[in-house]
Automatic annotation (TrEMBL):
Residues 2-204 form the Nucleotidyl transferase domain. It comes from Roseisolibacter agri. The keyword Transferase applies. The keyword Coiled coil does not apply. This is Glucose-1-phosphate cytidylyltransferase. PANTHER family: GLUCOSE-1-PHOSPHATE CYTIDYLYLTRANSFERASE, GLUCOSE-1-PHOSPHATE CYTIDYLYLTRANSFERASE-RELATED. InterPro entries: G1P_cyt_trans, G1P_cyt_trans-like, NTP_transferase_dom, Nucleotide-diphossugar_trans. It holds the Pfam family NTP_transferase. The lineage of its organism: Bacteria, Pseudomonadati, Gemmatimonadota, Gemmatimonadia, Gemmatimonadales. GO terms for biological process: O antigen biosynthetic process.
Length: 260
């Protein structure tokens, strides 16, 4: 099953980091957010990726084009340009980098990948957030209900500490808990190819007409995820993710740390 990652947006709310690179290339622990997301899927056995590029597509292309050489020792024969790698492991991934337009909206980017996803169900997510969602269980849930689309529903993290009061006494305190109610779109979709027929064109937002219509027709189901989920929308989010990675307790990490 292929994994589609939308990685072409401007990331305007993170302009301090995205002036020269797309949002999914903002680094956490010395690695792009895009790499962290791919590691999570790979840990669950999904290793073929279709990355929808847009803004500063050349940055993503350059990263993967030189991926073998950045973190490993190698020899190069300057006479003919041949190289030989020395030691080190590389991820066994197949990565398709597809330019989907500079101003294309999320639905339009997905629609432009029709020939790349083919006729089989596929996974899809955004290139700006991480989670510890069990992708295997997500796929199993999708197959069991037999509808066209599954979205992972999450509870967004609160910006403030939570207090449980008993009179004037604080009975319980939790720093930045998940919000107790209100499910939102956390990405991490499983989709049947027919959902592409719900997308009119480049200007279509996936999160508007297509998802609204799928829901109205009873073709959208929600996989509830109560665990970790964190978007990377602001510098505050970047610092939080950095601190989690530095602590060695990043919930999304899996085997990624061993390769970092």
């Amino acid at each position: 099953m292929k994994v589609v990652i939308l990685a072409g947006g401007l990331g305007t709310r993170l302009s301090e980091e995205t002036a020269l690179k797309p949002k999914p290339m903002v680094e956490i622990g010395g690695r792009p957010m895009l790499w962290h997301i791919m590691q999570h899927y790979a840990a669950h056995g999904f290793t073929e990726f279709v990355v929808a590029l847009g803004y500063r597509a050349e940055v993503v292309r350059s990263y993967f084009l030189h991926y073998h050489y950045v973190g490993r020792n190698f020899s190069i024969n300057l006479a003919d340009g041949t190289t030989r790698m020395h030691g080190g492991d590389a991820e066994d991934w197949l990565v398709h980098l597809v330019y989907t337009g500079a101003d294309t909206q999320t639905g339009g980017r997905l629609r432009r990948l029709r020939d790349w996803v083919g006729d089989a169900p596929f996974l899809m997510t955004y290139g700006d957030g991480v989670s510890d969602v069990d992708v295997g269980q997500l796929v199993g849930f999708h197959r069991a209900h037999g509808r066209l689309a599954t979205v992972t529903a999450v509870r967004p993290p609160s910006r403030f500490g939570g207090l449980a009061l008993d009179g004037d006494a604080v009975a319980h305190f939790e720093e930045k808990p998940q919000i107790g109610e209100g499910w939102i779109n956390g990405g991490f979709f499983v989709l049947e190819p027919r959902v592409l027929d719900y997308i009119a064109g480049d200007a279509t937002l996936w999160e508007r007409e297509p998802l609204e219509r799928l829901a109205a027709e009873g073709e959208l189901r929600a996989f509830r995820h109560e665990g970790f989920w964190q978007p990377m929308d602001t510098l505050r989010d970047v610092r939080l993710l950095e601190s989690l990675w530095a602590s060695g307790q990043a919930p999304w990490a899996h085997a990624a740390r061993a390769r970092s």
